[in-house]
Each structure stands twice: as structure tokens, then as C-alpha cells.
Design a protein that fits this description.
seven-stranded mixed β-sheet; four-stranded antiparallel β-sheet; 11 strands; 60% strand; elongated
Length: 121
């Protein structure tokens, strides 16, 4: 079993910063990719930022230059540094990981519980 636990969300004023963390635990051999998605009620989930095992990253156009995704491989943890926050960044943010479960390459896709980010004007 693999679990993803998120932390770091909260309420900030426009222009402020937050740092989200997501720690994976359980039956983990390695992690191919970790990323962050966000979703408003009744809407589709949107990719925010993603980092793969080789270090390459992808960002939504709306957050480029403001958000940075990074990882700590030894801790199986991914971070999202969010700077210059805007009210339109207000969403529930979800962590995602593609986890390799053993040395034979068995893998699965997992989601965190979600953490609320609210940006006030």
C-alpha cells in the first residue's frame, strides 16, 4: 500500500507565498514522477507542475515564473513553492505520484488527499 500525505496549504494575501509538501510512504521501490494538480468544485482537474525521475519539469502556463516544483528523492517527497500568489490560484491542490512497487517494474498511480489554498485580495 502507498500513501501520499500533503501539507502546507492555507490562507494568504495576494502577492504572498506558500510551500506545499507531499510525502509518499509504503511499498515504494522508486518513483517515476510526482506532480501537483488543482481542481475547483464541479470542474476538471488541471496539471499545475510535474517532475519526472530524470529531473525534467512541466508547468501550466498560468503558473510559469511563479511556481517551482522540486523533489527530495531520499525522502520520497515533492514540493511546490508558490510565489506571487493571485486570487485565481485559489483551488484544492492534489499531489500525484507514479510509484514503482518492486524491482520487476510493477507500478501504480496514487493521489494525495488534497489541501486547500486560498488567496485573498
Amino acid at each position: 500500500q502507498v500513501q501520499l500525505v500533503e501539507s502546507g496549504g492555507g490562507l494568504v494575501q495576494a502577492g504572498g507565498s506558500l510551500r506545499l509538501s507531499c510525502a509518499a510512504s509504503g511499498s515504494i521501490f522508486s518513483i517515476n514522477a510526482m506532480g501537483w494538480y488543482r481542481q475547483a468544485p464541479g470542474k476538471q482537474r488541471e496539471l499545475v507542475a510535474r517532475i519526472v525521475s530524470g529531473g525534467s519539469t512541466n508547468y501550466a502556463d498560468s503558473v510559469k515564473g511563479r511556481f517551482t516544483v522540486s523533489r527530495d528523492n531520499a525522502k520520497n517527497t515533492v514540493y511546490l513553492q508558490m510565489n506571487s500568489l493571485k486570487p485565481e490560484d485559489t483551488f484544492v491542490y492534489y499531489c500525484n505520484a507514479q510509484v514503482v512497487l518492486n524491482g520487476r517494474g510493477t507500478w501504480g498511480n496514487y493521489w494525495g488527499q488534497g489541501t486547500q489554498v486560498t488567496v485573498s485580495s
